[in-house]
Amino acid sequence: MATxxxxxxxxxxxxxxxxxxxxxxxxxxxxxxxFEEGRRADRxxxxxxxxxxxxxxxxxxxxxxxxxxxxxxxxxxxxxxxPYLWHLGAETVGPVDAVEFDAAVVRALCESDPVLGRAxxxxxxxxxxxxxxxxxxxxxxxxxxxxxxxxx
Length: 152
Hints:
Blueprint: H1 7-10, H2 13-22, E1 24-28, E2 33-35, E3 43-49, E4 52-58, E5 61-69, E6 74-75, E7 89-92, E8 96-102, H3 103-112, H4 114-143
Antiparallel strand pairs: 1-8, 2-7, 3-6, 3-8, 4-5, 4-7
Helix pairs in contact: 3-4
């Protein structure tokens, strides 16, 4: 659905360099709890390799996996919107290599650089819209008339 492949593609070349300067590479082992639903969202990542499962608490049961993210996908968008709390939890499925960003630094950069800020907000908004569309399709497959979530 999205036309932009990843965050760096969404940025003009000079702004891409600014983001690269504040990013750092991380490696996360299998079964690493990356963040917890309801806790402070102070970082975000672009996945380079591996997969991360997003989950939601279910009272009295194990957390339910709602989506699995992979290469070039944005892990975490709650950092951009007050009150900066994670809406979901996340755990690595296997080893993951990613680029990590400090949320406060990126928010400040977005405020000081309107071109970068606009590109960041558009990228995150498109990511959220794509994920909502995917959720809608999955819910229709589960609860709608047979095959109603599939595109013709």
